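Structure, all two chains, one model.
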Amino acid sequence: MTRKREFKSQEIYVNMGPQHPSTHGVLRLMLRTDGEIVSDVAPMIGYLHRCAEKYGESGTYQMMIPYTDRMDYLAGMNCNWAYCLAAEKLGNVVVPERAEYIRIVMGELNRIASHLIAFGTYGLDLGAFTPFFYALDEREKILDLFEMVCGARLTYSYFRIGGVSQDLPEGWEQRCNQFIDDFRLRMKEFNDLLSHNYIFIKRTADVGVISPAMAIDYGCTGPVLRGSGVRWDLRIDEAYSLYDRFRFQIPIGRGEKGAIGDSWDRYMVRIREMEQSCDIIKQALRGLPDTGEYRAKVPKVFKPPKGEVYVRSESSKGELGFYLISDGTDRPYRVKARSPSLSNLCVLPAISEGMMIADLVATLGSLDIVMGEIDR
Amino acid sequence: MQEINGVSYLTKQIWTDATWLRFLSLNELGFFLMLIAGVLVLTFVLAYGTFVVWAERKVAGHVQDRLGPMRVGWHGWLQTLADGIKLMMKEDIYPTLADKPLFVLAPPIVFLSAFVGYAVVPFSQNAQMADLDIGVLYIMATASLGVIGLIMAGWASNSKWPLYGAMRSAALTVAYGIPLGLSIIPVLMVAGSLSMQDLVQSQNGGILHWNFFRCWPFMPLAFIIFFISNLAETNRVPFDIAEAESELVGGYHTEYSGVSFSVFFLAEYAAMYLACAVTTTLFLGGYLPPDLSGIPLILSLALLGIFLFWRFKTFHDRSQVSEAIFCAILVAAITLLWGVWPYFFWFLAKTGVLLYLMLHLRWTLPRLRIDQMMYMCWKVLTPVAFINILGTGLWWMWITGIPKNWWPY
């Protein structure tokens, strides 16, 4: 009697994260893989949950601002801004013009800094080490500028309800102008090094394609949505602050190297947005009024009238919204943040079926998530 | 020994009489001396390995606009030693569920496969441990043994990421062994021998007799295929998918620590240098001097001057300038070596250039995906290598005439 031995082949489960070099923080992906092919992905979040929203309810309106820094820690200014916008709308505060201009400059500088990290770590994800150092080098200069205005390099808490915490120091505008001029030259280097590298294009084109309809269905915003070819930017479509005074373009994915909405498109949208941000900063520095208040007169005990408000703004990752309920006291009854990274991450399982592990890393990198914002 | 293409073997014959370095004719004394030679080569590999690690970190630093190691020793040249000591003092951790015998055995096998190849590398006319008649095949065979160690490491770790790394490296090494072997064949056809010394001597007579400059464009094509395949065989960027850091954490050596890890590390650099040495022997005239005379020499010196000028102009840090001065002193020292021992100097210089190319590629390029690499191997490199063999053969027939006994029956 012969017994036939058969080799059983089965799919295996692999834990990618929470400690993994390319999950950008403490994201855990459960992969069901058949060899190199990923048949299922389940993102598991919550490793960085710090009850930021609950903290917001237990403190005054101003006390929430430092917590927003810790949400998207790569774009702290934008998070400050989104929260302050909501609180100002709730309390009917009018922000002085000079403060608005300063805010726009800071927001756009931070957008560049955040996109630089996205650019550099995306190179790391694909095995290119050098772009990361080039990107961090430029980011350091932006952080120097931030340090000049508020003393902090990562968690700024520079924005206040009604303006910003302090005026620009002497000579800041010139330094910022100088940086923008230098940075435009460096952008070319970035493109030569990574964007138009043959291997890089091979690795990212037609990888992780998000169709426009799918991007809208899953609530993707920011560069992920624009990478799919949807022209939607809150800075223009819902011009908050003084963005209606500025002239700039919205870069969208056009499927230059592959399908519309592939990883290369999303990556390139960020690169082009950095150029547009440079334009905006130049215009803002030109239009910055020499005199004027940098903060509106807001009482120390800030008591907005009863009501609720949802205000959204364009962070570097996408639509960052804050929902506030006021019960008339000096503390918000409810604080809720709508974070773009969470929606952008949610599309990952839908697009990653049948991918190779290497492509999964490339797709995840192109979504540019920040775990601090997802878990809050 | 017979003459091929009018190449003189005078010097070689002198050394044929002193048989003590020749592997195949050993007596008791010969065995003892072989042992000494082996230790010498091992020392060379270790010393050179530490140097290459330092060089890699310096190149990486300068490519990335930073300084690289600067603390231990002058400009960090002892950094590798310090790291090695640190790794040796660390605890060797064995995962609980690991297959311990295999786990322990894997790093030595990888290192051994990288090291035994040095037995036939002709560092100079007489600095060669053994001039095997099948030298090239021997290196190919021993170098591909390394993948067994990698698979062992990946399997014995009993962890999923190392297993992925092992599978990838197995697929890679098996696949790229084929274009590697095929791209050697044109050289063997021209040289008519598999012995490393014969291969070098067949390129005697100046730079234009090097295999790289012969049979244009077939030989350069073979060189490119060989170089790319070597990058893949040694798991270097852009083919480092076996230890792809951002995908597989550490690949096959994820679970290793301490000395075992450092052995893997050293084996990688030993294999790298071996690959450069073989490339030099096969295509760049081995240890032979380029024999530039007259105008080419002046031209190349001028080019070197322009390059150095440009390099100095792009320095924007004093420490980099002092490094360049250090390099100049090094070059002077090496020139002295050139006077004393020219063959060894030229061997070091040529392998150094190839090595630098490998380092620079690593810090410039992203990584390929495994299916793209397989595509490149099976659908690009292998067919091209086959056509290349045909082309070289036709070319060589055209040069030397059709042999009288071309039809064996």
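Chain A has 15 helices and nine strands.
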